[in-house]
């Protein structure tokens, strides 16, 4: 890496650190000041205590045994004060860190929702980094104090070393030997970080498998197939692999630490012996011996705190690296500035559109050229996996084509502000939401502007045919939905009608998308519903030139479309009206006839 890159990476980290410090101080400035003062006193306490002990022994002219006893008593008193101070400080810190962690949690959620497209939610690298960040956000939240603590430890350590060197320069070796555990611990921490990154994907897999066994939705299939035990065993195996890796890394780090500390203890013993000899030769006083013993024992703790502070700072730096990567990723999207038209005059055009899902080698769509005329209803048909939903995802803008262009009345879709384009759409999808809220909210969130407008929500429900569902509910539109909160659990078909009512909330969309929204309805209910939607689509078409795209496996429904597009393995193989396609006797004719026979 070039020096310039290193410098800008360092600057970015400083910026995040500055942000974390501001967050911490703003949470409660008075408490932050108390914690800062306590940490300051604690960092110089060992040097202060050792100097007091030396002074007491020298001023009272006590012998070695009496001097050591007095020093011990003063030391015990100081230790008690230190423990009490620590307790207060820990409690205060806990409260501040909790609040900072909460804000960070919101920022992390923001990182996942900032990009207008959703392909990052399927990128293993994004998800792995996010998993590590989520798990370690607490360390980021405490990073401000880690920094202060480490700076205090370094200052206190420097003061202690200065006092020791004042007696004899040889005593500096005691502190030098203390650097050995510091270096070794850093190495151990790096190994642990590597293992955590390596384990991130396995941990996600393990969590997902675990959810399959405990969530109510997959529970039925899991019970019937009796594969719960196997899924659990698989999750268990992943857990064991991850834990084994972490334990081995932890044991190695501990072994290295033990070697480091042993060398320090040897140095401490040698230092005491050396000062005792200096005392005997009259070159040092009993007070000096007391100071060396006092500092030597607290030096171990000071070095330990410096080591752990540096290690924690290293870990914070590593986590910050993930945070910065994710932030940069979230902000890297195209900066679109064009507004969508208020009504469509020409429609949507696709030219040589190709799309490859992240991590997939083969395109889900390729060479797609389509003219979706303003005001028309387009039917999309094709066998499973033909690319219908993928095409819908590209039109809505949640995915960008990997090649080719999509234009909205001649304006490239990539240049239109994503939020503004989303606001001009309305839709119901296969994997529709099932919000466990009141019916009113469940429908109203389709257009937040009218969320609390009972009349508006009611008429949307009516247009989508969901009024029949609402009249059956005990509190009508105010009924709580979902068993999680003691509400009524609608059937899948009823949930689907509510999803359609949500889609009907936006009265003047430019793009109306219906991706198999009626799969759970019986044919009669589906027919009635599509008649309502045909009315809705033609009204939107007349008013603002809306394009309605309809995906359905039921050909009886698709026949109502003005123009039908047939997809096969990611390419458009036929298009035209129902009558034209039947006459052409191609794939559409084949699929239509097969389904018609099935209904006989
Ligand atoms: N999230 C994804 N990641 C990777 N590949 C995907 C993803 N979603 C779909 N695919 C692949 O893209 C191809 C087209 O899928 P798509 O869902 O668009 O088909 P479809 O016509 O809507 O199918 P269906 O009728 O079953 O809903 C398939 O080969 C599928 O495996």
Automatic annotation (TrEMBL):
One Gene Ontology cellular component: plasma membrane
Gene source species: Nonomuraea montanisoli
Protein name: ABC transporter ATP-binding protein
Compartments in which it is found: Cell membrane
InterPro entries reported in the protein's UniProt record: AAA+_ATPase (IPR003593), ABC1_TM_sf (IPR036640), ABC_transporter-like_ATP-bd (IPR003439), P-loop_NTPase (IPR027417), Type_1_exporter (IPR039421)
GO molecular function term, any single one: ATP binding
Entry's transmembrane regions: 31-49, 55-78, 167-185
Top-level taxon in the UniProt lineage: Bacteria
Keywords: ATP-binding, Membrane, Nucleotide-binding, Transmembrane, Transmembrane helix
Residue runs in coiled coils: none
Entry-linked Pfam families: ABC_tran (PF00005)
Domain ABC transporter residues, every copy: 348-594
Membrane topology: Multi-pass membrane protein
SUPFAM superfamilies: P-loop containing nucleoside triphosphate hydrolases
